[in-house]
């Protein structure tokens, strides 16, 4: 794979993991580490693996 493709895949995966916990307090996130794809939580209530408009 090319470096450009790899970076885009990394961006999409990071966005999909970060969207459900967007706007959570830092202290909560330090105590509750995200280690898998989450869904139906947080402000957006999106299904597991959904990306935001950032992607």
Q: Total helix count? A: 2
Task: Detail the poorly predicted runs.
Answer: none
Strand % is under 5%
Helix and strand content put the structural class at: mainly alpha
Summarize this structure as a short list of keywords or feature phrases.
55 residues; mainly alpha; globular; 2 helices; 0% strand
Please describe what this structure looks like.
The protein is mainly alpha-helical. The chain has one domain. The chain is built from 2 helices and no strands. The protein has helices at residues 3-18, 26-31. The relative contact order is 0.22. The mean pLDDT is 86.
Topology:
Blueprint: H1 3-18, H2 26-31
Brief digest:
It contains two helices and no strands. With 55 residues, the chain is an all-alpha fold.
């Amino acid at each position: 794979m090319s470096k450009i493709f790899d970076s885009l895949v990394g961006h999409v995966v990071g966005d999909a993991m970060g969207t459900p916990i967007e706007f959570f307090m830092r202290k909560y996130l330090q105590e509750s580490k995200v280690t898998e794809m989450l869904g139906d939580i947080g402000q957006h209530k999106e299904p597991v693996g959904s990306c935001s408009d950032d992607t």
